[in-house]
Amino acid sequence: MLRLWIGLLIAFLLSLSVWGTFFVHETEHKIAIFGIVGILITTVTSVFSITINNKDIKERELELIQVKEKQKVFAHFYNVYFELLKKTKKGQGNNVTDKIVNDLMEFKKGFLNWGSIKLIKDYLEFDSNLQNPEMQEDPFYLIRIGDKFLKDLRRDLGFNDSEDVNIMSIILDNEARKQMSL
User: Fold this and answer.
1) Cβ–Cβ < 8 Å for 166, 147
2) What is the pTM of this model?
C-alpha cells in the first residue's frame, strides 16, 4: 500500500514538473509550480526521516528491554552458580538448598523465553557436565565448565569475551589461579 502511495506521489510530482516545464509559459507560474514541487519533496522527505528514526528508536528500546529481561533471568543462574561454588569450596557440593532449587527454576522459566537455541544447547551441555564424577575429584571442575557457559551468557548479552581468558578466575586468589592453570 505504501509503495502505491509513493508511486502516485512520484507520478504526480513528475507530471507537475513536466507540465510546469513545457506547458506553462509565464516565469512566475513556473516558479510557483517548482516551489510547490520542492515543498512536497521536502515534506515527504521529512516525514520519511521522522518515520524511520521513530522505528529505529522503538527497535533500540525493544532491544534494551530484552537485554534487561535477559539480565534478570541470567541473575538467577549467577545466584545458583555462585551458591554452588561456595558449597563446593566448603565441601558441601551435594547439599542443594531450597533457595538454589527456586533460583534454578526461575532461571529455567525465564530461560525458555529469552534464551537462544544455541544458548539452551550450551546450558544442557553445562547441566550434563555437572553430573560428571570428575566434579567431586577436581576442585576447579565447576569453574572450568562454568566458564564456557558464562561466556555464552555474556555473549548473548552483547559482550565479546576472549577464549584465552578464564573469566571465572576473577573469583580465585593468585595461588588458586596458579593451581588451576597447571
Assistant:
1) yes
2) 0.63
Q: What gap in Å lies between CA 143 and CA 55, rounded to an integer?
A: 42
Taking a C-beta distance cutoff of 8 angstroms, is the pair 76, 103 a contact? Answer: yes
**Which H or E element spans position 150?**
helix 141-156
Strands (E), the chain: none
Q: Which amino acid is at 120?
A: I
3-state secondary structure of 111: helix
**Tens of pLDDT, residues 42-90:** 998 998 899 889 999 999 999 999 889 989 999 998 888 888 878 777 7
Can you tell me the distance from the alpha carbon of 79 to that of 84, in angstroms, rounded to the nearest whole number?
A: 9
Element housing 80 (H / E): helix 27-89
Own/partner contacts of 5-9, CB < 8 Å, gap of 24 or more, are: 9/40, 9/44
**pLDDT at residue 182 is higher than 60:** no
